[in-house]
Predict the 3D structure of the following.
Amino acid sequence: MEKEVVTQETETVPLRLLLRQETAASHAALDATASADDLTDPVGYARFLTRQYRARVPIEAWVERACPEQVAPPPVAHLIAADLAAMGCAIPQTSLQFKLPVGVDPIGLAWAIAGSHLGNRMMLKTLQDTESDSPCSFLADKKMQRFWCELRPQLDRPVSAVHAQPAITAASTVFAHFLTVFADQAESKAAA
C-alpha cells in the first residue's frame, strides 16, 4: 500500500489557528500601538475609546450592509459612544469607509472583531483591579462574548492553507483598518 504524501495544500488545521498564524505580525503591531494608551488614566482611556469608535463605526456599517448574518458580529460602537459621553467626551466624527475585498470570507472579519473582545476582557480586569470608576460598558459587553462562543465551531473546522486564504485576507483587512485608524490618532496626538 502506498503511503499518502501530505502537502501544505492538502494538510488541514483549524481555521482559527491559520488566522492567528497568518495575522500574527499585524496583531502584534496593533497591540503595540494600543498599549500606548494607559487605560487607568482618564485621558489615555478616552483616547483608547476614541480609537475604537473611529475604527468600529465603518466596520459596523459594512457588516450591517453586506455581512452574512451567521458571521455578523454584534454592534458595539453605541457602547463606546455611551462610555465616552459618560466621561464628558465628544463622540468622534468619522468619515472613514470600510469594505472587504470581493471574494473574501467574512468569517475572517468575525474572528478579528470577536477575538479582539477577548483582549477587552483583560483590559476590563485591569480597570477593575485599579478600582477605576471609568465607564466600561464596551469592555464589559457580553454580546460579543456570546458571539465568539457561537462562532467558535466554525473557526475550529479544519481547512487547508489554500482554502483559508479568503478568511485570512478578510482578517488582514480588518487589522490594516485598525492600524490605519490608530496611526492617524497617534499622529493627531503628536501634532497637538
User: Anything to note?
Assistant: Strands lie at 12-14, 158-160.
